[in-house]
Amino acid sequence: MHHTRQAAWLATLVVSSLLASPAPAQTLGPGVFDTPPTIVPNGTTLVSDTTLNVLLGSDVARLTLGDRLAPGTNIVVNLQGGDLSINDAFEGSTINVESGILSTLLLELSEGTAINVSGGEVQSALMLTDGAQFTLSGGTVSTASFDNPGTSAAISGGSIGRVSVGLGADLTMSAGEVQSIDAFTSKITITGGNVTEAIFSPFNSDIDISGGIFGGLTISNGSLAISGGEFGGIFVRENAPSTISGGTINGLGVGPNSPIKLFGTEFLLDGQPIPGLTPGVPYQLTERNQTLTGFFADGSPFSFDLEPDASGNPDNFFPVDANVTLHLVPEPAAALLLLVAAATPRRRARRLLTKK
After folding, report:
1. Backbone angles phi, psi at 219, to 5 degrees
2. Running DSSP on this structure, what letter comes out for residue 184?
3. How far is CA 7 from CA 12, 13, 14, 66, in A?
């Protein structure tokens, strides 16, 4: 009798589970919604043409933006206070962080998505690939990586921890603070801001710096152009052609097979003029165990000890096979006078022709 009742109970349970249908996924939209007062259950999915404003006092968890299989359009989340976590953000999604906390552990964004941070706190580790877009103008971001062509990051304020840029992605920086930048096969353009630790570029990146403050910079197998900025030290390793025409550099180390061009208005060796140094004609610097001083083209002074062995001075070393050329350029005032002088005869000639 006991077995009969147990069998009947199991049969009822199986039939009930087969007949039961899963609860439909919670969706929101289309339209514009504020929370509060709108209640957004955990796990909600936003559909196309939906804007959700997450306001102070809200706590929205496990939000999904769009559909993995069907590209969406105009899906926007504005975090303006409270706490928000996002499971997934698919094509057609934009996240604007203005205030509050984005607390997702890891947020992956790819083609057709964007995140713009102007305030608040992004505790998430951001991973952008395949054309995703990122801007930071205020607030703080934990850490971020940017990979693949079309993926771009623009930093004009705020602060961010460690940043990785690779596989064809681009990063531009004009202000703000970054803890460190790792660059792999990418393009880095910096006009201002502060990289508190260093830029480390071990493989095939193009770096162009015209301003900013840097704890240090190490590059190999890429290219480097510096026309301004302040550096704790620069180490140009192998296969990294470099041009330096400005900035404050507190140490310069040179590796093999890395042609370095120094552009300046004055070059001295142990305080003395360099025989044979002529404006417009590259001068191969073969001297060692001396001090090279002078002024870069932007007027910044420099002083490098030409130590052939890094063990003697790890901040300044120029091995005997280092390929360093000096390029003497006129001072801006002198160059202007030359231009004026060159233009004067032409103006006088025109006046004479006019009189005739």
Report:
1. -140, 145
2. E
3. 9, 10, 11, 45
Contact 191, 174 (CB under 8 A): yes
* 8 A C-beta contact, residue 26 and residue 47: no
* Residue 201 three-state SS: strand
Please name the residue that has the structure tokens 């140094």: 277
Give the Å distances, CA to CA, from 198 to 104, 234, 321: 27, 9, 26
**Radius of gyration, CA atoms only, the chain:** 30
pLDDT in tens, 57-96: 999 999 999 999 999 999 999 999 999 999 999 999 999 9
Distance CA 122, CA 127 (A): 13
Own/partner pairs for 114-119, CB < 8 Å, 24+ apart? Answer: 117/141, 117/158, 118/157, 118/158, 119/158
The letter for the amino acid at 102 is: L
Q: What is the pLDDT of residues 180-202, one digit of tens each?
A: 999 999 999 999 999 999 999 99
Burial of 298 (0-12, 13-18, 19+ CB in 10 A): middle
Q: Which two tokens stand for residue 284?
A: 């191969």
pTM of the predicted model, to two decimals? 0.87
Residues 11, 356: Cα–Cα separation, whole Å? 117
* Residue 93 CA from chain centroid, whole number: 22
- CA–CA distance, 294 with 317 (Å, rounded to integer): 17
Nearest-CA neighbor of 129 among 160, 105, 164? 164
What is the Cα–Cα distance from 119 to 90, expressed in whole angstroms? 23
Give the amino acid at 195: V
Which residue(s) pair with 80 in the sheet?
99
Rounded-to-integer distance, Cα 286 and Cα 28, Å: 70
Q: How far apart are CA 280 and CA 25, in angstroms?
A: 71
